[in-house]
Amino acid sequence: MLSASISEITNLKAGQKSSPIKLTISNYSDIPEEGYQLYIKKKEIEIIANDNAGIFYGIQTLLQLIQQEGVKIPTGKITDHPRFSYRGSMLDVSRHFFSVKDVKRYVDHLSRYKMNMLHLHLSDDQGWRIEIPGWERLTTHGGSTEVGGGTGGFYTLDDYKDIVAYANERFITIVPEIDMPGHTNAALASYHELNCDGKARELYTGTEVGFSTLCVDKEITYTFVEDVIRTITEVTPGPYFHIGGDESHVTSDEDYVVFVNRVKDIVRKYGKTMMGWDEISHADIDPGTIVQWWARPENALRGIEKDAKVLVSPASRTYLDMQYDSTTYLGLHWAGYVEVDSAYLWDPADMVQGINNENIIGIEAPLWTETVTNMEELEYMVFPRVIGHAELGWSDASDISWESYKSRLISHQKILDHYDINFYKSPMIPWQEGIPKPGVKR
Ligand code: TNX
Predict the structure, then answer these.
(1) 432 — alpha (psi -120 to 50), left (phi > 0) or beta?
(2) Cα dist. 273→13, 230, 269 in Å?
(3) Where residue 18 falls among pLDDT bands split at 50, 70, 90?
(4) Overall fold of domain 86-418
(5) Among 122, 131, 126, 121, which Cα is nearest to 145's?
């Protein structure tokens, strides 16, 4: 359960008396959920917490200290806990498919920064990426391509369970998304009966958005949606199911509300909390629904009026597919350029009047993959920005400081190099050249 490298360092189990590293879970009234206290003494290190997650995060901190400082680390006490309960990233595996191995590597990256949610965008116009028994063509046909015309791919239910279990061991919850009623061309190409005109669409490998919709008037649509939601929720232990709901430009406003209202009942029937992009606040959403604010703050505010919680993902700050500057060789810039400072230097609860700490469940940084085709490119767009997003999710606003962050990023370079993570060497950060990798002899 705990990361391999720390068990190599300690080679001891929690509770073992003779260990110089003690891990203790008990009822500590002064430690909040997922929090921990780390005591570094001369001859002993102790981590205490109320839950496994807290111990895990204490270990991540200890590991970072050792990786940055070497085995001689300063003595002291660290008291730490997260600001928000939802700290995550999204990976679009539809526009370009990413293998189970790639997703696990991404999970590893996120877990080191104490993120606890990975949202998988499992379907879009360009590809359907998860097996649904009874609807095989979704994957055999709808999963057979991707942006640019590559061969795509999909996860079997066993693959998906494997990802869920791997993430769970690192205290990361998988949030599955099936985007609907728009962004559904891959499904509409696979089953003609899902189209209002009964005609199957062609597979799509371009990057336009907003041209597809499920047929809101047909009962088969809801049979389909229910099969999909039942199948996926059965293999998803986490509390959420994300229904997408963005950019349904060819669904009428009336149809959109009818559709989301019906899907809402299905999600509830299978015991999950519904999440969706901010447009879903137009529907009669239940209290506690999670509205993911990406574009329109007025949609998030409408959600709050309906007692929804807001997941903060404004494109201009959190979109990992936005270019760093005009010279970035990957990515898009419709929401502007997002350099390392603008990804980090903001407060989720101080962006829009009326979207306050108590309305916010957390922050998520999405990576859309229209232009991102492999792990190396993924890491280049994600790092170092996601480190800043992780800090915004974890630390109080009063602890956010650009000067301190900059110097901490420099010391993180060692860690990024150690794990062979490709990252953008922003000119804003005075990176150190040619640091030898730990363990590599010259
Ligand atoms: C908008 S963000 C989209 C995605 C695109 C992304 C590209 C959102 C809910 N919809 O379909 O991939 O922009 O940046």
Answers:
(1) beta
(2) 36, 14, 10
(3) low
(4) TIM Barrel (3.20.20)
(5) 126
Superfamily of segment(s) 2-80? Chitobiase/beta-hexosaminidase domain 2-like (3.30.379.10)
Predicted confidence band at 128 (pLDDT cuts at 50, 70, 90)? very high
Residue 30 phi, psi dihedral angles, 5° rounding? -95, 5
State residue 8's pLDDT score: 44
Asked whether residue 29 carries a pLDDT value surpassing 50, the answer given is yes
Give the H or E element holding residue 124.
strand 123-124
With a 6 Å cutoff on the Cβ, whether 226 touches ligand 1 is: no
pLDDT in tens, 117-126: 999 999 999 9
CA 347 to ligand 1 center in whole angstroms: 22
Best residue among 175, 209, 280 to mutate for probing ligand 1's pocket (most ligand atoms within 8 Å of CB) is 209
Contacts of 375 (CB under 8 A, 6+ apart): 98, 102, 105
**pLDDT for residue 13:** 53
CA of 186 to the centre of ligand 1 (A): 16
Ordered by start, the domain boundaries in the chain are: 2-80, 86-418
CA-based nearest residue to 339, from 355, 356, 320: 320
Global confidence as pTM = 0.94
